[in-house]
């Protein structure tokens, strides 16, 4: 693999006694769409601000294109940012907003007007070029903000929750605009969001952060199917988490005894010893449901408590031994066929290959 | 079709005091002053008349116009100085100071207004006099003594006493309301730190700054104390000219001409300034 565009080496950022980012080591590759995801206060925005030079790391090193960037001022960088609030200049027209960065770089008047109009055209808002940005709609402002950053022709674009102010329909449309732009331009996008759907829909790789640490890095599918630890398992998707002690490890997998029964999970890379406490997850959509005892290696009894209907997919909430909550996702059609009442006794089962043991954290 | 043009007596009752106040103490006196400017003075006594002689006498005299342009110049100068000197302080208070420090600073800047402006002006005597504190200190490093009282310098110092705290407060409040993300956005797009002041900060604080400058100008333009006590009436400003005119030969009508000219000037300046301050940005329909 080629040299990464950005490297974080043991980067730390403290604000007095608060540690926003802790010992972060991360590579960002040329041309990838990387999403940094986490709940508020997890350090994702601080990470992005360090890339833009708006915060200085208190430890470690950040390199961009091989150059140590720790003390490089924001205006000396080529890291345009699309802000959550968009931060368009209200005293300028749409075109003048787009021209701003070029003007700062000393690009001549005609040249920067031409390039700004090109980008407004490309973002399909050229008819608003001479309008004040305050008079534009949310989606139009969004496009001006993107044009203002992309007109700089950067190698990397930073985006800080740019879609959070838009309504649901527009979010889906803008996601399409963003992924298409990223593929066409072939530049690196670093996208900060708290929204799993945005991150998973657009990113090649997702970084999940929790309290200043990286909890997991991986392709959306890998994170979804194999969460590395309890935090990610709880944060991402709908996972069932069971805890117990290792009984044996053999060719079939790792045998674990839990209050809910004995189960077999996939043996992880890291060595496990007999008697060790472990947790494993099974994704809610990989759990099968039956009213009679199934012929399966992994099965547990539970009682139906409630269901949550979100379109064609339904999530059932069931209660197992020791009040453990099981979540089962299934097609609404399949559920209709079963004709269940709350309080109904059920059998849940899953394949060994879908039970993933969580790492320490 | 029902015409709903009923008079709301309840609302009128509450509005009445301010309307009466304005009529009795502002509109009335102004009208009287306008009338007064056409009166004549005979044997040191005013007589009702409608003659243009006062207007003609004042507006054709060099000393009036000298005084007019001087007042306009020195009030503008002190306004400019107040706005410039206030800016670094206000900038630091708005962008660098903590909220607590900013609150204290604004509070301390209001304190000068607790004492009479006349008292504050007289305290400059101690500092600016020929044998005063400042000249004594300059003497130690082999400079001076400088003549600071009874000079243009004294006048400007007096004006600043009046306007500087106000300029700092208005500028601070204006800039503290700026969305700091916009400054970061400018930096992110390659704007150097100092350049953000006129690329972002000033365009965003236009309204507040014009109003602040307007206040500084109005206060200085109409001030009598500073040019009289610290400037020593060296070059008489218009307020001093009014006083002189009333003293010499009871020329109240001619003083009224000066006063009306001052009011017209202030109206023009204030109207232009407010129009500029609230001008719509480009591209707003």
Verbal overview:
- The complex is a heterodimer of chains A (361) and B (285).
- Chain A has 9 helices and 20 strands.
- Chain A is α+β, with helices and mostly antiparallel strands.
- In chain A, strand 17 (313-319) and strand 18 form a beta hairpin.
- In chain A, helix 2 (94-104) runs parallel beside helix 4 (138-150).
- Chain A starts with 5 loop residues before the first strand and ends with a strand.
- The mean pLDDT of chain A is 92.
- Chain B has a two-stranded antiparallel ribbon.
- With 285 residues, chain B is mainly alpha-helical.
- Chain B starts with 8 loop residues before the first helix and ends in an 8-residue tail after the last helix.
- Chain B is 71% helix and 2% strand.
- Chain B has 13 helices and 2 strands, in the order H-E-E-H-H-H-H-H-H-H-H-H-H-H-H.
- Chain B has a single domain (62-277), classed as Orthogonal Bundle (MetI-like fold).
- Classes of the chains: A alpha+beta (361), B mainly alpha (285).
- At the A-B interface, helix 2 of A face helix 8 and helix 9 of B.
Instruction: Give the helix proportion of chain B (percent range).
Output: over 70%
Q: Name the average pLDDT of chain A.
A: 92
- For the record, the CATH class of chain B is Mainly Alpha
Number of helices of chain B: 13
Number of strands of chain A: 20
- Summed up, the helix count of chain A is 9
Query: Which percent range describes the beta-strand content of chain A?
Result: 35-45%
Radius of gyration of chain B: 24 Å
Query: How many strands in all of chain B?
Result: 2
Task: Specify the overall morphology of chain B.
Answer: globular
Outline the low-pLDDT stretches of chain B. Answer: none
Rg of chain A, nearest Å: 25 Å
Strand content of chain B: under 5%
**CATH homologous superfamily label of chain B:** MetI-like
Major pleated sheet of chain A: 6 strands, mixed
Indicate the structural class of chain A. alpha+beta
Shape annotation of chain A: elongated
Q: Which chains have the largest interface?
A: A-B, 31 and 23 residues
